[in-house]
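User: Some background: our group keeps a shared notebook of sequences we're curious about, and every so often someone picks one and asks for a predicted structure to add to the entry. Today it's my turn. The entry only has the sequence so far, pasted here. Could you supply the structure so I can complete it?
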Amino acid sequence: MAERYVKCQFCEQTAPFKQRDTLAHEVKVSSKGKSVNQYWHRECYPKELEKREFLLNEQKQKDEMFETVKKIYKINFSPSKSWWEMIADLREGTNRYQKFWKKKYKQGVPFNVIKEAFLLSVQDIEWARMSKNFKTLEHEMRYGLIVMQGKVNDAFRKMKTREQQSKINEAMEAVHIEDMRDNREVSFKKTQQDRDYSYLLGDD
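Assistant: Of course. Here's the predicted structure to add to the notebook entry:
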């Protein structure tokens, strides 16, 4: 009988089925309600968890970016497929409309930066809405993408400055807390020294 193997879901390398107890293991339930055993090498499982966390954060940032877009354009529906493709290209660092293009993965502009760039573009988008004769919302949103892409570098700089300021504020807060602790200790010692315990000695 041929030996059975299981596949690591992260690196996709196989291991003998009889060694499955040495592997990290999860049971997933498929859309049809069927239980499926999944395995990972012990060294691959932390990477799998890190990947999941990354993807969850990606989705969160993407959702927040889209909420910003919906507010700017006052819509409650998803834009066209081509609009999302342009967003995807910006995130991945690709251009699917080039003759020869290579698929990349998350090497472009992060969704939180895209969101910031949209926020920086609000006035220009509003100006275009008032001054240009867009025939459709699709045309208006495509123009907005061009405007937003022109703000990406500004968005990067603004977020970097905000991050640096946050670190400075945290450092100053830590120093302030330490100073308060030192002052309390000095005050406590001084109070102890200033107390008069002569009443405990009685009358001489």
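Suggested note for the entry: The mean pLDDT is 86. Helices lie at 45-73, 81-92, 111-120, 122-131, 137-149, 152-194.
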